[in-house]
Specification:
Elements: H1 10-20, H2 24-31, H3 35-47, E1 54-58, H4 64-70, E2 75-80, H5 83-92, E3 97-100, E4 113-119, H6 128-137, E5 139-150, H7 156-177, H8 182-192, H9 197-205, E6 209-217, E7 222-229
Parallel strand pairs: 1-2, 1-4, 2-3, 4-5
Antiparallel strand pairs: 5-7, 6-7
The chain binds S-adenosylmethionine.
S-adenosylmethionine (SAM) is lined by residues 10, 13-14, 17, 59-61, 64-65, 80-82, 85, 102-104, 119-121, 124-125.
Length: 230
């Protein structure tokens, strides 16, 4: 079984997600106590998609996030590096458009999309700033970005419980549900190493996006960052 290191080499990241693919959707729902569904609905609402809009769901994995976004009536395409995640997605969600692509070299011309989004994927990119700039390239001026990602609960007590108890317990709980429990050691490590809401907002602003703001979900365990293409 494989896990990526915090260097986030793309081949290691892809291999790790290939290993979790089979039980990915179920593991997520179990480990988040069903909150993942609310986070996905909030992401769709934040993107304000309308029928006819073109939307890219980057790091779409099995397409679980793409499927939720497509409920808006927009044309949504999911892209991901892991062929294992994509093939589970094709089998389980045959109507969802999914393709293989690397976030740092997207196979789309400039200004293709009205909206772009990443749910629980940006943290895994070898260079998140370069990924945000590549997203800006494929978005039309005035288009929208929403990043849904694990974050830092602002309340000190909640943060302590989350970091010291919840994230510590994660790998043990994952052992009973995941097809690659090692990946959940990486998950906990990568959440701890991830920038705060403010620091991520600065990263987004430096990558070609304006009007950056965020909203905490579930006491800040997850944050939704919104921005507009300059
Ligand atoms: C935690 S999953 C998220 C899947 C889905 N968006 C969701 O909300 O459940 C993260 C995904 O990021 C993908 N990923 C990581 N680095 C990537 C890259 N450079 N380009 C495209 N996808 C990448 C992984 O393959 C994995 O499927």
């Amino acid at each position: 079984m494989s896990r990526a290191s915090l260097r986030k080499e793309p081949h290691e990241v892809a291999a790790m997600f290939d290993g979790v693919a089979r039980r990915y959707d179920r593991t997520n729902t179990v480990l988040s106590l069903g909150q993942d569904r609310a986070w996905r609905r909030a992401t769709r609402a934040a993107l304000a998609l309308a029928p006819g809009d073109r939307c890219l769901d980057l790091a779409a994995g099995t397409g679980v996030s793409t499927e939720e976004l497509a409920r808006s009536g927009a044309f949504v395409v999911g892209a991901d590096l892991s062929l294992g995640m994509l093939s589970v997605g094709h089998a389980v969600r045959p109507k969802v458009a999914l393709l293989a692509a690397d976030a740092l070299a997207l196979p789309f011309p400039d200004g293709t999309f009205d909206a772009v989004t990443v749910s629980f994927g940006l943290r895994n990119f070898v260079d998140p700033a370069a990924g945000l700039a590549e997203l800006a390239r494929v978005t039309r001026p005035g288009g929208r970005l929403v990043i849904c990602e694990f974050s830092a609960p602002p309340n000190r007590l909640v943060r302590r419980v989350y970091l010291d108890a919840v994230l510590r317990a994660l790998p043990a709980v994952a052992r009973s549900v995941s097809s690659n429990p090692e990946a959940y050691v990486y998950l906990a490590e990568s959440i701890r190493a991830w920038p705060t809401q403010q620091a991520l907002a600065s990263l987004i602003a430096g990558a070609g996006w304006s009007d950056v703001r965020w909203r905490n979900l579930t006491a800040g365990i997850v944050a939704l960052h919104h921005a507009t293409r300059r």
